[in-house]
Amino acid sequence: MARNRVTxxxxxxxxxxxxxxxxxxxxxxxxxxxxxxxxxxKGSNQALAAxxxxxEVSFIGRIGNDAFGRYALRLYEEFGVSSxxxxxxxxTHSGVSVIFIDKAGRNMIMVVxxxxxxxxxxxVDAAEASIRESMVVGFQLENNFEIVEYGILKASRAxxxxxxxxxxxxxxxxxxxxxxxxxxxxxxxxxxxxxxxVVDRRSAVEAGKWFLSRGVALALxxxxxxxxxxxxKEEQLHFPAPKVEAIDSTGAGDCFCxxxxxxxxxxxxxxxxxxxxxxxxxxxxxxxxVIEAIPSQDExxxxxxxxxxxxxx
Length: 313
Description:
The protein has helices at 42-52, 67-79, 121-126, 128-132, 145-157, 174-177, 187-194, 201-213, 252-265, 270-284, 297-306, and strands spanning 5-9, 13-19, 34-40, 56-64, 86-89, 95-101, 107-112, 136-139, 161-164, 182-183, 218-222, 228-231, 236-239. The protein is an alpha/beta fold.
């Protein structure tokens, strides 16, 4: 296991951002106010965030042999994300996501996975060295679930910490939980997976206990502006989110995940890593976009210093 290495198994989707006063309803056409195009996909976003925030990152995924895929490779090179474990698929398109954003900063997203759903066991096997050498391996649910489950099992058997961000949410087999070190759902995903309506700290703790009873080592449940709740066998702690004026929450959860993994890989303790991730995500929601909104290490550290919460990250 290498200090400061993070591997992400996940998805790349080009993001098409459309901002307007409100969301269109069924059959309705609205005139928007802003348009932006940029790289996206939960796995890719987390890899870029972890790299920008100081980790040595490898990304395991598939892209199409198209303009979107070529842009992705340039992006990984710019951020210092290793693309050695990325396969360019000549037979399909790169993933595409369309994001609607209203004036309150809320979002609605539709994703067409394309090459992401062609990630294979062979792709994961080819990256075994990276998985074994990492401090933590991150997964999401934008790829074919059979491959996600296979990767989780492979990483767990290699003795590497497995973090699952269960989004977009879907039912998970009971057998997968015992191979997860940390599960990081938001309140909506935690509600869907556990059947417990998660609306505040108390209900988040109950959901966290549900995950632990299935074999997960720790649950980290994010609650948007209410912060995050950590549940382990030893403790249940609430970490408040910094107060900011949000303009776009798209990608905030991915920024949180990437920052959390980067902080852990840097040697930070669990509590400091969560504080670091909270601050990184809070900065990101004050900016439009996803990749462009990821803060620098210096920005996060300065906010932590200003709040008197400076840690090792």
